[in-house]
Amino acid sequence: MPTYEPRNEAEAAEIVAAAAARRERLRVVGGGTKAAFGRPAQDEATLSAANLTGITLYEPAELVIGARAGTPLAEVEARLAERRQMLPFEPMDHRALLGSSGEPTIGAVAAGNVSGPRRISAGAARDSLIGVRFVNGRGEVVKAGGRVMKNVTGLDLVKLMAGSWGTLGLLTEVIFKVLPVPERAATLVLPGLDDGRAVEALSLGLGSPFEITGAAHWPAGIGAGEARTLLRIEGFSASIDYRLGELRRLLRRYGTPEVVEGEDAAALWAAVRDAAPFAADRAEGAVWRISTAPGNGPALAAAVAARRPARWFYDWGGGLVWLLTGAEGDAGAAAVRAAVAQAGGHATLVRAPEAVRAAVPVFEPLSEPLMRLTAGIKAAHDPAGLFNPGRMYAGV
């Protein structure tokens, strides 16, 4: 299978135009770290953004950074760190969970709308993405957005590309708003809570005026073994001291919390971000990422566990359930979809054998009207169906 590695945007456009003329279906890749995410693509060649690298724009005073899509995420984060700035949405690193190698790229972060624990306060990747350049299925270069946030009337191409998983075009450049790195971060750790009480505590913290930027719960048997409920606050040191005291008082009926800071706290949140408790179970474990109303998370997880063995933990105050179950059969698809239908929300099969991902819906099944809309958007941007065909939905 041929691999195309354009050296610049113009060359990428030529390659796509030629592929369109041949009706040659293309697998779009960046660093390849998420190649096993989604349905197996029905492709005939690979189109790689690996050579589209380099930071194209950085204005620290304006809190804006732009880079070509193949630029390693680590390079972007290192450049921001020099000025004590960061990507607000704390993007996940899928490598340990999926058993992949390579380097995550900034374009793939945008294409997958890849976000982490800070999403509850700072929004998702799509909320910080303010500009894109991409090559559509006709081989045309399209520019949308720019260096500042704008109100949009009509189809917002910037937000449309975020989470499209390379099915609408090849991203060549992305621009993000960034934020200053907080002076200090501290995490309250409440031990021994069951799922229901943990979500109560997280909801109480999130509903307070004390600006929680991370809210997660590991049930007993996940991570270090003992159940742990985590609430993170960030900001100026004097503010942290005051908010820690107030949160201790607010949460006193849930136990006496430990305060964790520095590298230990950073490691905790990296493990939550990357679903690290499930990284070692690749051989037999399928992993689901389930979004629901925070108060519904425990009941949803219990409903799945009533039908098949499962383990899970929570992020986003209980609104994100990471669930591990056996990869045999449908990898829990029937149980998960039934629980989601009852509780509300949506579920994505993040990790499973290729045969399973080909047989069951990986992304949340769409209603007929939404599927028609999705197919119409795909046809408008990629009329020949070149880009990652079938990766998100069969036939699209």
Automatic annotation (TrEMBL):
Name listed for the protein in its UniProt record: FAD-binding PCMH-type domain-containing protein
Keywords tagged on the record: FAD, Flavoprotein
PANTHER family, alphabetized: D-LACTATE DEHYDROGENASE, GLYCOLATE OXIDASE SUBUNIT GLCE
Source taxon at top rank: Bacteria
Stored InterPro entries: FAD-bd_PCMH, FAD-bd_PCMH-like_sf, FAD-bd_PCMH_sub2, FAD-linked_Oxase-like_C, Oxid_FAD_bind_N
Pfam family, one: FAD_binding_4
SUPFAM superfamilies named among the record's database cross-references: FAD-binding/transporter-associated domain-like, FAD-linked oxidases, C-terminal domain
Domain (FAD-binding PCMH-type): residue spans on this chain: 1-181
